[in-house]
Amino acid sequence: MNDSKKKWMEDVFQSMKGSQRAKPQQELFAKINNQFKLEKTEVVPLHQWRYTAAVAIFLLLMNSTALIYYNLNRQVDYDYATFEDTYKESLISSYQIY
Predict the structure, then answer these.
(1) Domain ranges (residues) in the chain
(2) How far apart are CA 47 and CA 91, in angstroms?
(3) How far apart (Å, rounded) are the C-alpha atoms in residues 81 and 95?
(4) Is the dihedral of CA 6, 12, 16, 18 positive or negative?
(5) How far apart are CA 75 and CA 72, in angstroms?
(6) In whole angstroms, what is the distance from residue 6 CA to residue 37 CA?
(7) Rounded to whole angstroms, what are the CA distances from 4 to 8, 10, 11, 15, 89?
């Protein structure tokens, strides 16, 4: 840091030398505690968690089933493509007789 910045920081710290620490109001802590006591936490019922878990399991099963069927169909397409490539080539590739 340059000297002017250090001097400025030192001046700021020196200006705070005679000041007192800030004190909160006496009843502030009681007000904060009362606010916490007045706030009610919302409890999620157990049956709602069960529905959520059931839906999540259902979605996982549906996705896994879809992936399995997709992979099976894709495998059949590859087999068909291989079969097609074998017979797609012409019997005569060169028309020169000799």
Answers:
(1) 46-88
(2) 69
(3) 27
(4) positive
(5) 5
(6) 48
(7) 6, 10, 10, 16, 85
Backbone angles phi, psi at 91, to 5 degrees: -70, -35
pTM for this entry: 0.38
pLDDT digits (tens, 9 = 90+) for 20-72: 888 888 888 889 888 888 877 788 788 889 999 999 999 999 999 999 988 88
The burial class, CB within 10 Å (0-12 / 13-18 / 19+), for 41 is exposed
Residues present in the chain in total: 98
C-alpha–C-alpha distance, residues 50 and 57, integer Å? 11
Position of tokens 């109001």?
A: 25
Q: Please, is 7 exposed, middle or buried when counting C-beta atoms within 10 Å of its C-beta (0-12, 13-18, 19+)?
A: exposed
Q: Please report which residue ranges of 1-98 form alpha helices under DSSP H.
A: 3-15, 28-38, 46-88
